[in-house]
Amino acid sequence: MAILTHGTWVLLADAEKALLLHNKVDAISPALDVVRKTEQENPSDYEQSANRPGRRKDPGTGQSSAMEDTDWHELAKERFAHDLADILYKHAHRGDFDRIVLVATPYVLGRLRDELHKEVRERVVAEITKDLTHHPLDKVEKMLKAELDPKL
Predict the structure, then answer these.
(1) Is the pTM value of this prediction over 0.70?
(2) All structural domains of the chain
(3) In Å, how far from its chain's centre is CA 20?
């Protein structure tokens, strides 16, 4: 059975950008329309940090140790995956899609698996570990067709 059937949704995601797409044709000639585009501005941790990591006193005279600072860049990536899971849940709960293909970087796909609600997980028909967020839609269609339905 073809995976990328009419009405199937596709999520393309990396740690800062996500596209929710809807296949309006079929697996033989996929035609993806953008349902939603989500972007997050996530500067490097260095740019987000306010100052140097703190220090704490150690036992002994005049000794102190550096404390590990929060990695704001990494934290924003985690929150982005969480936000994507919430968005998918809202769409699934409204009945906007019955089937979805998740295409994401390894990091985001792993985070999404942890965050997805059961209602969304039940609708996932395929997962692809790739970053396709920066490709034009016509190339994404061809790549998905080749990846999901190599016989077509």
Answers:
(1) yes
(2) 9-40+70-148 (3.30.420.60)
(3) 10
- Positions of E strands within 24-116: 32-39, 55-57, 64-66, 100-104
DSSP code, position 20? E
Amino acid in position 131: D
Phi, psi (rounded to 5 degrees) for 40: -130, 130
Amino acid at 69: D
Considering only 18-27, 65-74, 81-90, 107-116, which range has the smallest mean pLDDT? Answer: 65-74
Cα distance between the two ends of the chain: 11
At residue 68, what is the residue type? E
pLDDT at 118 > cutoff 50: yes
Q: Indicate the pLDDT class of residue 28, thresholds 50, 70 and 90.
A: confident
> Which amino acid is residue 128, in one-letter code?
I
Residue 39 is predicted with a pLDDT of 85
What are the C-alpha distances in Å from 98 to residues 81, 105, 106, 122?
Answer: 21, 23, 24, 9
Q: How many helices (H) and strands (E) does the chain have?
A: 5, 7
CA distance 56 to 58: 6
* Average pLDDT score, the chain: 84
